[in-house]
Amino acid sequence: LTITYAGSLYFHRTPEPLFGAVAQLIETGRCSTKDVRIVLLGHCRYVNGVETAALVRRYSLEEVVDVIDRVPYAEAVRTMQRSHLLLVLAPERHRLVVPAKIFDYLGTGNVVMGLAEAGATADLIRDTQCGPCFSHTDIPGIREYLASMLAQGRYRTLRNQPALFSRYDARELTTRLIEEMGRAQG
């Protein structure tokens, strides 16, 4: 099960709840370090001023987490496409903001897993049905979701249904804007 976060860990974005959930799965023997891979791709060497490597060690996930520095966009997209889950982080302070990366994630067809409090990002994830969304404090929920994905390899068949979020496609939005402008003029 490969979970990828692509972007920058800034403005209180942290994968720590995911680390906690995966560590619990490993500690209880529900999976091994070979069953899960977490890829942090981009500007991810620090989380809230703490070295990511130190957080990884705190959770004993050295064999699970890969921190990869920024790569060209096309390579990042390939990494996202090869992943099973794409992680979006929306800190509580950003309830009105939707990270732009979620639209890149949707374009891959892969399932998006959100760590977001109530707000715009959580609403978008629910509206598009692109995947589960958990509060940052819901480590048991994250853990059980991942356990269900690992059971019998369910994660291997995870895919989104693009028709559910087509109304967020740039072409669709442009067409709607032109129609609205036409109605307003005439």
Helix and strand arrangement:
Elements: E1 2-8, H1 16-27, E2 37-43, E3 46-47, E4 50-51, H2 52-58, E5 65-68, H3 73-82, E6 85-90, H4 101-108, E7 111-116, H5 120-128, E8 133-134, H6 139-150, H7 170-185
Parallel strand pairs: 1-2, 1-6, 2-5, 6-7, 7-8
Antiparallel strand pairs: 3-4
Helix pairs in contact: 1-6
Mean pLDDT: 93
Output the helix-strand order. Answer: EHEEEHEHEHEHEHH
Strand arrangement in the largest pleated sheet: 5-2-1-6-7-8
- The coarse overall form would be globular
Provide an overview of this structure:
By secondary structure, the chain is α/β, with parallel strands linked by helices. The chain contains seven helices and eight strands, in the order βαβββαβαβαβαβαα. It has a six-stranded parallel β-sheet with strand order 5-2-1-6-7-8, sandwiched between helices. Strands 3-4 form a two-stranded antiparallel sheet. Strand 6, helix 4 and strand 7 form a beta-alpha-beta unit. Helix 1 crosses helix 6. The protein starts with a strand and ends with a helix.
Report a brief summary of the structure.
This protein is of the alpha/beta class and 186 residues long. The chain contains 7 helices and 8 strands; from the N terminus they run E-H-E-E-E-H-E-H-E-H-E-H-E-H-H. The protein is globular, with a radius of gyration of 17 Å.
